[in-house]
Model the fold of this input.
Amino acid sequence: MTPELSVVIPTYNRLDTLRHVLPALLRSQLAPERYEVIVADSLSNDGTSEYLAGIAAEHPRVRHLPGPYTGRAMARNAGIEAARGEIVLFTDADIIPSEDLLERHLVHHRPREAVAVIGMELQIGSLAEYERLRARPDLRRPLHPKTRKRLTWLYFLTGNASVRKVDLDRVGRFDVDFTGYGHEDLELGFRLERAGVTIRYEPLAVNYHWHPVPHAEQKEKMRLAGRSTVRFYRKHPTWVVQARLGMTPISLALHGAVSSQPRLLSRLEGSAELHPGIARTIVYQYHYVSGIKDALAGEGGRH
Done:
């Protein structure tokens, strides 16, 4: 029987969390014959291959797809190519799904209707927090209110997103030129929306992103995301992209003002190191715009 839904998971050396993600997917309330799981593995060397071989021996609907992928975009595209389901659901090797996640996505995908579905993704720092938020919905702090029905491409985040394979093929899948951190999913969402795909929000499709990021690593991620913003804009040079991704004359000017005050920047960095809050938000934004400026300088300063 051909599955209706193909779950695509890119991974590289994430066996520590994948050991929790796959069993959770296999506990899905959706009937086993209705879905498959494709793990697009960028040649991990942490035992992922051996682990997946053991899982697949008992659950043939789990498929290991190793390859020399240069990034998450290429890995996901390989998963799309291999998918047998009409619907493709994207998640990650460090995101634990709720047991009804797959059903919550499928209910929105009616025949001949061009929709993408984004679920509720919650950030967790430990398995204990995962268990607590599972049991206590009142403690959850989602990005979007439950009353929201539609989203824009700016929130097309592929830790909890599903789309028809035919629509992914129609717009050209992920852009493999996004090899660094950030925006390969938003850029695909931009093309899907422009092609007439409605992006819906389903707050009952809940999963838990178990990837706490140290402060120094997050600053580097923000810088890389800034570089990806410039790639995005060069591909889609519109004011909407500039404004929504924070690549505006105002943001660039504010960055320059902060850069001209090294003592202020040092104080902000010191405060952000010790405490979350407004100082940390400002520092992350500073490094994000630094990445934008780095990329613009690498292209001769054009903007």
About this structure: The chain has a mean pLDDT of 92. The first helix runs from residue 15 to 26.
